[in-house]
Amino acid sequence: MKILVTGGAGFIGSHVCARLLEEGHDVLCVDTLITGSERNIAAFHTDSHFTFLKHDVTQPFEFEAEAIFHMASPASPVGYMENPIETILVNSQGTYQMLEQARKQKAMFLYTSTSEAYGDPLEHPQREDYWGHVNPVGPRACYDESKRLGETLTMEYYRQFQLNTRIVRIFNTYGPNSQMEDGRMIPNFITQALKNEPLTIYGDGSKTRSICYVSDLVEGLMRAMFKPHTAGEIFNLGNTEEHTVLEFAQTIIKLCNASSSIVFESSRIDDPERRRPDITKARTMLGWEPHVSKEEGLLQTIEWFRTQIPNLSTVL
Ligand SMILES: NC(=O)c1ccc[n+]([C@@H]2O[C@H](COP(=O)([O-])OP(=O)(O)OC[C@H]3O[C@@H](n4cnc5c(N)ncnc54)[C@H](O)[C@@H]3O)[C@@H](O)[C@H]2O)c1
Fold first, then answer.
1. By CB atoms within 10 Å of each CB, which of 30, 46, 193, 210 scores lowest?
2. Residue 62 CB neighbours (<10 A)
3. Are 94 and 53 in contact (CB under 8 A)?
4. What pTM does this model have?
5. pLDDT value at position 311?
6. Ligand 1 mean position to 314 CA, how many Å?
């Protein structure tokens, strides 16, 4: 198939491109590189089935596609708080542009939304039919609310035009190709531990998180897009194993063989207390659940980070 991946030079997008190329598809990756990196797609340039276009998807452009993975959007707190207007526009105007193209070309469409659509949830674990608890004017609203609008647009194209669309709400995902200093828990902890610096916990460490290894997530995205009877559906994809932030810090220190201490700083505004997906729907409809263990995924991620931190051997 001819497949467009917006945000394909980002962390998850680059793994989606790799998977689609492995399966023999023609992949067009469109990315501004605002939070992504050439490095993530460097290996694909020798593949004649891969094309990269540096372009902002809020602006029209010509392409042919039978399926569109619309993943473009800053995703980390640092990424979206530094680029709030760009984030709002890519999830609203950018989603509209991509949906219009999907409609004209009768292409399948997948929108990557986020667990942040649930805000600081009052229900645990979060099911797809929970409407969320979101601050519409806080510093995270540029991301949370624009993702919610992107979902609304996606559902209207399904209802109004019977477009073959689906929404995936991604929960914390980690792995190689993520940005090192993007304010997310796992990259922060690994970078600090590999440098033997103190690990920074925001809050007292009792907040909980569940993390999904990127290969598991990509498998879920493929099933959500290509399995029959997924049009018009919303799926949570993430890991259900919940741990405290303190436990993650301790595990990473151990797996990195680091001598780092842990320091506690005040909680960040609107940072949710708990996050855990209910993935019953993905299990039932997609036959999907994560398989990579926390230790296995973290070790692979740590090895990749090790290769990315310059002069690490002189630090250790
Ligand atoms: N990583 C996670 O844990 C997570 C969790 C929930 C949702 N998501 C969603 O998954 C998608 C990918 O996230 P990620 O972690 O890979 O983030 P990322 O920042 O690494 O990748 C996003 C990519 O989109 C590109 N981009 C941003 N605005 C663009 C625009 N206007 N035009 C073209 N390209 C643009 C960026 O340059 C970047 O390469 C995002 O939509 C994000 O909201 C990710």
1. 46
2. 5
3. no
4. 0.96
5. 62
6. 33
